[in-house]
Write a structure and sequence with these properties.
The complex is a heterodimer of chains A (about 70) and B (about 55). Chain A has about 70 residues and is an all-alpha fold. Chain A has helices spanning about 5-20, 20-30, 35-45, 50-55, 60-65. In chain A, about 65% of the residues lie in helices and about 0% in strands. In chain A, helix 1 (about 5-20) runs antiparallel to helix 2. The longest helix of chain A has 16 residues, at about 5-20. Chain A is globular. Chain B has 2 helices and no strands. Chain B is an all-alpha fold. Classes of the chains: A mainly alpha (about 70), B mainly alpha (about 55). At the A-B interface, helix 1, helix 2 and helix 3 of A face helix 1 and helix 2 of B.
Chain lengths: ~70, ~55
């Protein structure tokens, strides 16, 4: 995802939060890949199921740690 | 025990703060960086309030 695409998502999600649409904003924010170090932290402290069940975009973590890192 | 929903909010807050921090120093992305940073702090505060207040 380009930085410009990410910026557009941030602006859209921010507008949704301003309108009181927190849950919609969260879903929009989650289109942005979670930073690999945060994904790794979450896996270690919250578990892999947490990341899967809450719909996080793990594409950058997959690229950094290799496919299957979540279930190792 | 902390609920998964609360953990979700905390993680989202951290992610937004991190993105905001990076974008604040990138040409042309300062506005989005500031919004992301602000939203991250708001999310984190909401999580704190939900848990501790």
């Amino acid at each position: 995802m380009s930085q410009e695409e990410e910026a557009a998502i941030i602006i859209k999600a921010h507008e949704l939060r301003k309108q009181g649409k927190s849950e919609e904003a969260e879903q929009v924010y989650k289109q942005i890949p979670l930073q690999p170090y945060l994904a790794k932290f979450a896996k270690e402290h919250f578990g892999a199921d947490f990341l899967i069940n809450y719909g996080w975009n793990l594409s950058e973590a997959d690229a950094e740690y290799g496919l299957g890192w979540l279930t190792k | 025990m902390v609920s998964a929903g609360l953990l979700n909010k905390i993680l989202l807050g951290a992610a937004r703060i991190d993105t905001g921090r990076k974008n604040l120093t990138a040409d042309g992305l300062e506005h989005a960086g500031r919004l992301s940073y602000e939203d991250g702090i708001s999310l984190s505060l909401e999580a704190f309030i939900r848990k501790w207040v």
